[in-house]
Amino acid sequence: MLLRGKSRIYSCPGGASYPSLPDIASLPLEARDTPEFQQSAIRRSGVQISGHLMNFKIEPVAQDARRPKPEDESKLGFGKIYSDHMFMMRWTPNTGWTDARVQPFGDLTLSPAALVLHYGQTIFEGLKAYRNPRGSVNLFRPADNAERFARSATRLDLPPVPTETFIAACKALLDLDHEWIPRSHGSSLYIRPTMIATEPYIGLKSASEVLFYIITGPVGAYYPEGFNPVKITVCEDYSRAGPGGLGGAKTGANYAASLLAEKEAIKAGFTQVLWLDAAERRYIEEVGSMNILFKIDGKVITPPSSDTILGGITKYSVLDLLRSWNIPVAEERLTIEDVLQAHAGGRLEEVFGAGTAAVISPVGQLNYKGQNHDIGNGETGPLALRLFDEIIGIQYGQRPDPFGWITEVVLGSNQP
Question: How many C-beta atoms lie closer than 10 Å to residue 326's C-beta?
Answer without folding.
Answer: 6
